[in-house]
Amino acid sequence: MLRPVDIVVLLKLSLEVGRRPPYIQIGKALHLYPSEVYTSIKRARASHLVHGLAKEDRLNRTALIEFLLHGIRYAFPAQLGTMTRGVPTSYAAAPLNRLINPDGDPPPVWPYAEGSVRGFGFAPLHKNVPQAALEDGKLYELLALVDALRDGRARERELAGRELTERLSSALDAKGES
User: Which residues fall within 8 angstroms of residue 125, CB to CB, at 6 or more apart?
Assistant: First the structure.
C-alpha cells in the first residue's frame, strides 16, 4: 500500500534523467534515509508506478499522471490546520500563484519554523517536504501542484492538473519513457 512519502520520492524521480540515482542520493536530496527510499520504491513498484528491476526501476510516468489526476485527493486528502508560519503551497506557490489571484484569505502553507509566510497549515506529504522543496525549485513546483490537486477548488485542480501533466509528459517525451 502506498504512503504519502512515496509520492514525494516519485516526484523526485520524475526530475531525474537516465538511470535511477542511488538510494543514498535520492535520500540525501529528500532528507530521508536510503532505506526509506528503497522501501518507497518497492511499494511504488508493487503499485505499478515504477517499472520493475528489469527496467531499472524507471518511473511509469503515464500511471503516475493518472494516479495524481484521479486518485491523490482520495488516497492522501489534505489535512488543514491553524494559522502558522511556513512555506507557501498549492495555489499560493509557483506556478499557480502566477495564474490565480489571491482572494484575500490566508494562503496554505507547509508548517516550517524557517518559513517566511503566515497562513493556514497544510500538512505536507512528508515532514521533510518544506526543506527539500526549498532546496530544489522544480521539486517544489511539482509538490505545490500536487497539493492543489489534493485540496484545490475546481479551477485550481484543473490548472494544476494541466501544469502537472505538461511537466511530467514533456519529460516523458524527452526521455522516451512510459
Answer: 4, 5, 7, 8, 76, 143, 146
What CA–CA distance (Å, rounded) separates 117 from 42? 36
pTM of this prediction?
Answer: 0.94
18 backbone φψ class: left, alpha, beta (φ>0; ψ -120 to 50) = left
Q: How far is CA 118 from the centre of its chain?
A: 21
Q: Is the peptide bond before 95 cis (omega within 30 degrees of 0)?
A: yes
pLDDT the model gives residue 97 = 94
Contact 14, 59 (CB under 8 A): yes
Position 54 scores a pLDDT of 67
Under 8 Å between Cβ of 147 and 25:
no
Separation of alpha carbons 82 and 159, rounded Å: 26
Burial 42-59 (b: 16+ CB within 10 A, else e): ebbeebebbbeeeeebbb
Which residues, listed in sequence order, are joined to residue 96 by a DSSP beta bridge? none
pLDDT in tens, 44-76: 999 999 997 767 789 999 999 999 999 999 999
d(CA 11, CA 175): 15
